[in-house]
Design goal:
Layout: H1 7-18, H2 20-28, H3 32-40, H4 44-53, H5 57-60, H6 66-76, H7 82-85, H8 90-100, E1 102-103, E2 106-107, H9 109-119, H10 124-133, H11 136-146, E3 147-151, E4 165-166, E5 171-175, H12 183-195, H13 197-209, H14 212-229, H15 235-238, H16 284-289, H17 294-314, H18 324-347, H19 351-357, H20 360-376
Antiparallel strand pairs: 1-2, 3-5, 4-5
Helix pairs in contact: 1-2, 4-6, 6-8, 8-10, 11-13, 11-14, 12-13, 17-18, 18-19, 18-20
Length: 377
């Protein structure tokens, strides 16, 4: 991966300010991996500017980690982001909605509307691709908040509600809220009716008959599974890192754990490496990770990020907040280091050996218990 200290990338940052055409040429000379690194390592408010200078943003945007794309779009503003969403993959769009379209365990309807409105400004193919990727339950919840739908009965005397629209003479829909022009909804329904009629039919039926409570339950279930795939466990599981330990348990080392037997996963954030000793890192855990063998260091990298993700979830940090990851990493490093120092001292072990024998989330738990004990004392 390309680091920000690479002189070529530093030069491009300078050219963006001084000579944009030269910056575009220089960026085009980079590999795709380097272009992704350039965007992800830039300050969030400047990322859209860099994407606009790329010779082929359609090749770079799909490679941006999902959460980083969400941070980039939010920094720009959803209203100005359709040109970025045009190139986003369905998986990226779903991840953005998973991260930003919920408040706790409930859909955030204002945020969902902003995302769907922005998606509606993309091209027809991109819009269809995105809405077909979103959970039908989320789409139904969104539609039910925006429109009322009536199915034309067989009664010849029936009249649709004033201002209703219909695409096929059977389903009539109108705005649920005064002043809502339904532009994005009308485009969505028209595209579905034209290209995916049976899905359109299902959505209109669900808007009439299905219960919000059932759809919320299923939507939360699908979202929870996807967030786990991105490394964010459910809140109940994540809270285990704050579990109470008796004083006699603090220094214990389990004999059957394999703390560095960690599988890699596709991270939603851009973290090319953890801070290393000698590169401004002060935390004991970073200094100790740097002393591990290469394979061990890579496994410990993922174990650390997994622990930081648990911190973010347990502390109910907003997963769509670009500052959440740095805060979670800082907190994880602080308490893991406390636990690491304590267990190493109590057992007469080198910290490197502790990392090989104790899970990082266990070290974090020890560190938080040490703080609690000091506070109570």
């Amino acid at each position: 991966m390309v680091e920000t200290r690479d002189p070529q990338i530093r030069r491009i940052f300078e050219l963006v300010r001084a000579d944009p055409p030269a910056a575009t040429q220089a960026m085009g000379e980079l590999s795709l991996d380097a272009q992704v690194a350039l965007v992800c390592e830039a300050p969030h408010p400047r990322r859209a500017e860099l994407l606009g200078l790329l010779p082929a943003p359609e090749q770079v945007i799909p490679r941006i980690p999902a959460a980083e794309l969400c941070f980039t779009i939010k920094a720009l503003g959803l209203a100005d982001a359709p040109w970025i969403l045009e190139y986003a993959t369905p998986e990226q769009v779903v991840a953005c909605i998973d991260l930003d379209g919920w408040s706790g365990s409930s859909p955030d309807h204002q945020s969902l509307q902003a995302w769907f409105d922005a998606l509606s400004e993309t091209g027809s193919e991109a819009f269809l691709r995105s809405i077909r990727a979103v959970d039908p339950e989320v789409l139904s919840l969104h539609l039910r908040r925006r429109i009322e739908v009536e199915l034309k009965p067989s009664d010849d005397d029936w009249e649709p509600a004033p201002g209703s629209q219909t695409l096929e003479g059977q389903f009539y829909f109108s705005a649920r809220n005064d002043g809502d022009d339904l532009a994005s909804i009308s485009r969505m329904l028209h595209l579905l009716f034209t290209h995916h009629y049976w899905f359109y039919f299902r959505m209109m039926q669900s808007t009439i008959w299905e219960l919000d409570s059932d759809n919320e339950e299923w939507a939360l279930r699908w979202r929870t599974g996807r967030l786990e795939d991105l490394g964010f466990p459910p809140w109940e599981e994540s809270m285990g890192i704050y579990g109470h330990l008796r004083p006699d348990q603090l220094s214990a080392i389990a004999g059957d754990t394999h703390p560095l037997d960690v599988q890699e996963w596709k991270m939603p954030v851009w973290i090319p490496s953890l801070p290393a000793a000698g590169a401004g890192a002060e935390s004991l855990v970073f200094q100790t990770i740097a002393q591990l063998e290469d394979g061990e260091r890579q496994a410990c990298f993922y174990a650390f990020i997994a622990t930081a993700n648990k911190v973010a979830v347990a502390d109910r940090m907003s997963l769509s907040d670009a500052e959440a990851t740095p805060r979670a990493i800082e907190k994880a490093a602080r308490f893991i280091s406390d636990g690491l120092a304590f267990i190493a001292s109590e057992n007469g072990l080198d910290p490197v050996e502790v990392l090989r024998r104790v899970r990082l989330d266990r070290l974090f738990r020890v560190g938080t218990n040490l703080k609690t004990n000091r506070t109570e004392a």
